[in-house]
Specification:
By secondary structure, the chain is mostly helical. The protein has 15 helices and two strands.
Length: about 375
């Protein structure tokens, strides 16, 4: 929005034409908003007893140390991210609105889940099947509209390889055009998977948001490169016209995440809740789909993948053989059970997240 207010003035205000400048402003704005709002929000939530309901089947230490901590902190940083993105991005770019709709839509699902937990004083919340239903519906609606209007094609780009493209709309000569909707289905799978993966990771103070900050920062770079024709051509990555504006959203997520982490680092004064984790995962998923880096998300967000796979392995093996692979899943609880302190697990997972982000960026030259 500021772009349209100041750009016509010319002169020194021409700096607002640069995505890098507006992205940096977005990160600082989002961080500042969250940092200033959270103290009052935490006190307000405490007065109303809006506390995180700790699962009784989780680590015993959590029942002793985390009871009474306010929840739903994700509502603040999602509003901050949305307002900041609208303020600094070009609002005539439809991809900006697409990513915001999915982020806020998924956050709303998480809010309903958190609200039920708090009001009913239970860790059950919204049934899993309803979460998946609404996540799928929102994702399919947004991506389906984009594909129908021609804003998004059906090409799936394989990373690490030059010119390796799978066109869902033309898998073979004479293939029916409706096969292109298979790419929409793939995109929805990425959104739902990323959203729930971040949700599973949100079990220790600062673990999920720290890994999200790293992933969002990486996709800020990828979005900028994808939206820049010369860089995209040089690196042999898909050029997506207008994708550069998504880097402003990604940097707003970084800023909001840092503002939240100030109060969520161990020992946490506030939890993000499902309203935070589901929205963050949906936002990262949209960044991956809209920049044509779906597979790279699995590398960038390797911590989220690790957490999800650990749960899948645990459930499968237990149902099949009545044995446990891990002492407890997700895997961060396994290390807790082994005696690792919570800060040690968090920092080591952050280190892995940073390394994975660097590896992901370095692979751009492999093409």
């Amino acid at each position: 929005m500021i772009y349209y207010l100041l750009m016509p003035l010319g002169g020194v205000f021409n700096v607002f034409r640069y995505i890098t400048f507006r992205g940096a402003c977005a990160m600082v704005t989002s961080l500042s908003l969250c940092y200033m709002v959270y103290p009052a929000f935490i006190q307000w939530m405490r007065r109303r007893k809006m506390e995180q309901i700790i699962r009784t089947d989780g680590p015993q230490e959590h029942l002793e140390s985390k009871v009474g901590t306010p929840t739903m902190g994700g509502a603040v940083f999602h509003l901050g991210i949305a307002l900041t993105t609208i303020l600094w991005a070009r609002v005539d770019e439809p991809r900006v609105w697409m990513v915001l709709i999915v982020t806020l839509g998924y956050a709303l699902i998480g809010f309903v889940d958190d609200w039920k937990k708090v009001m009913e004083r239970s860790s059950d919340g919204l049934a899993g099947r309803w979460k998946l239903f609404w996540q799928t519906l929102i994702g399919a609606g947004v991506l389906g509209w984009a594909y129908h209007t021609g804003l998004m094609d059906a090409q799936f780009h394989v990373p690490f390889l030059k010119h390796a493209v799978i066109d869902f709309g033309a898998l073979w000569t004479g293939a029916p055009a409706w096969l292109g909707w298979g790419y929409v289905a793939l995109g929805v799978f990425v959104l739902v998977g990323a959203s729930n993966a971040v949700n599973l990771t949100d079990g220790l103070d600062g673990l999920a948001i720290g890994s999200t900050i790293t992933s969002a920062g990486t996709f800020a770079v990828l979005a900028y490169l994808a939206g820049h024709l010369e860089f995209a051509t040089y690196l042999n990555i898909p050029h997506v016209d207008g994708a550069g504006e998504l880097s402003i959203y990604a940097l707003a997520m970084v800023g909001g995440g840092l503002g939240f982490l100030w109060y969520n680092c161990y020992p946490a004064q506030l939890f993000m809740g499902d309203v935070g984790s589901l929205g963050l995962g949906g936002g990262l998923g949209m960044l991956a789909v809209l920049t044509k880096h779906e597979l790279l998300l699995a590398l960038v967000g390797g911590i989220f993948v690790l957490e999800t796979v650990s749960v899948m392995i645990q459930v499968f093996v237990y149902k099949r053989f009545k044995k446990r692979v891990f002492l407890m899943a997700p895997i961060h609880h396994h290390y807790e059970k082994q005696g690792w302190s919570e800060p040690k697990i968090i920092v080591r997972f952050w280190i892995i997240s940073v390394l994975l982000a660097l590896v992901a960026l370095s692979t751009l030259k492999l093409r």
